[in-house]
Amino acid sequence: MRTARVGIVAQTVSLAVAIALITALVAAGVSLPLLRSASIDQGQQTLGRLADLTSRAIERRDVGLPGGRPLPRQLSRALEASNVTGYLVSPLGGQVPGLSPDEVQRLLSGERISGQVETDTGAILIEGRPLSSGGAVVLQQGIADAGSSAGHFLSRFAVALIIGLVIASLIGYVAARRLTRPLRAARDAADSIAEGSRDVVVEPSGPREVADIADAINAVNSALVVSEGRQRDFLLSVSHELRTPLTTVKGYAEALADGVVPDTDVARTGEVMSVEAARLDRLVADLLDLARLGAVDFRIDVVDTSLHELLTEASRVWADRCARDGVSLQVEVPASVTPWKTDPVRVRQIIDNLMENALRVSPSGTSMWLIGRDEDSVTITVRDSGPGLTESDITDAFQPGVLYERYRGQRPVGTGIGLALVGRLARGLGGEASAASIAGSGASFTVTLPRDADR
Q1: Which region, left, alpha or beta, applies to residue 2 given φ > 0 means left and ψ of -120 to 50 means alpha?
Q2: Can you tell me the distance from the alpha carbon of 241 to that of 248, in angstroms, rounded to the nearest whole number?
Q3: Helix (H) or strand (E) run with residue 39 in it
Q4: Is 434 in contact with 443 (CB distance < 8 Å)?
Q5: CA dihedral defined by 143, 144, 146, 150, rounded to 10 degrees?
Q6: What whole-number distance in Å separates Cα of residue 406 and Cα of residue 422?
Q7: In the beta sheet, which residues pair with residue 387?
Q8: Residue 140's Cα: distance from chain center in Å?
């Protein structure tokens, strides 16, 4: 079941909005206490100026006295708009909410009063001014009214926050769309490659990391083209090699069934069929081994053996085969029988495949060499007297079917299974296989194996 995933565009927009929102909330959390304190301080200063104006107006107009005039209209409106409550204290004293009798007496004695006090209705700002007539005026204002500018800031902050979130969303959306455009192209290209298209080319664009994805997809596609071409050529070569013995066996079997083979030729016909069947069996066995080498359950049986014994046994078999083809086999076997932990069956496969390849390209009247070295590591080298290898041949020597396709019809070549099997067997035993060209005297193939195959 495929899990639904959120796209990069949605994630980017959400991230941009979240960042903008968190930034705004942090800024508000830090600034609001400072703003409220500054707003209250400003309200205290404003209330103090109103108290000064009110006291001067009272002294000029005799406000509150018989025949006195009211406060100036503008001052009255300012006091009313700011929800300021005023009190006149007579020279004989009196009570004022929020002030103690001692504070009232201090005020009447000519001392100014300014500050914040707590009342039953909440905190208030208070400003008191003595009058030259002996009385005093006291103005009071609630903290909420004095800090009303902070509320105006909050409303403006909310509007700015909404606008910022909208802008952040738009910027995040545009940036994400620009970022995902090359990613979508890469995804479409990958889907086309998965469906079998091989003429797909992704144009690198966008940030460096995204462009690297396009380059990687192009590289994978190119590698697939090369790999599939090699596989196709390999299958063609294998099918050709399998068809030859099958055709021979089928032809002779039909001749025997039809009774067209004379009695004197039956034994020879059976021998030919047996040889071709053995050849077919070897090809199939090599193919199976090549397939198993890529599997995790490929079996390696490590036992005690020696290079001396392996090369001596192999040289007896191959000396006869080389003699029948007019090729001289030169063998160099270590004199000592040094214990060696490895799989002798797999090592013998390596030797047989290298010898088969060397005998195929060595003309009659030339020589082949089978050389073993038993030192810190074990090396097995097979040299031939064939046409040699180019630099690209050395690189591709152990790739299935590559040399077959390259030299088909130009020189004696096999299917390419043997050398590919040698390379994979060498790696399976913990070693490596290499090839080299010897100027004027053919090619050399060397397998280096550890003294202890830890399998």
Answers
A1: beta
A2: 12
A3: helix 8-61
A4: no
A5: 130
A6: 19
A7: none
A8: 68
* Spans of the chain below 70 pLDDT: 1-9, 31, 35, 61-70, 146-154, 230-245, 275, 279, 282-283, 286-299, 401, 404-405, 408-416, 439-440, 453-455
Give pLDDT tens digits for 145-197: 766 655 666 677 777 778 877 887 788 778 777 777 887 888 888 888 888 77
Would the pTM count as exceeding 0.90? no
Q: Does residue 326 come out as left (phi exceeding 0), alpha (psi in the -120 to 50 range) or beta?
A: left
> What is the chain's Cα-based Rg?
51
Evaluate whether 416 touches 353 at the Cβ level (below 8 Å).
no
**H or E element at residue 36:** helix 8-61
Structure-token pair, residue 40: 């209250």
Please report the sign of the dihedral spanned by the C-alpha atoms of residue 173, residue 175, residue 178, residue 183: negative
CA–CA separation, 363 and 366 (whole Å) = 6
Could you tell me how far CA 179 lies from the centroid of its own chain?
Answer: 16
- Judge whether 241 and 410 are in contact, CB under 8 Å: no
Strand 328-332 relative to strand 367-374, pairing: parallel
Where would I find the H helices in 62-141? 73-81, 101-108
Q: Are 113 and 44 in contact (CB under 8 A)?
A: no
Q: Which residue has the tokens 């942090």?
A: 26
* Residue 261 tokens, joined: 């083979």
| Cβ atoms 184, 212 nearer than 8 A | no
- Scan for tokens 């300012």, then name that residue: 78
10 Å CB burial of residue 95 (0-12, 13-18, 19+) is: exposed
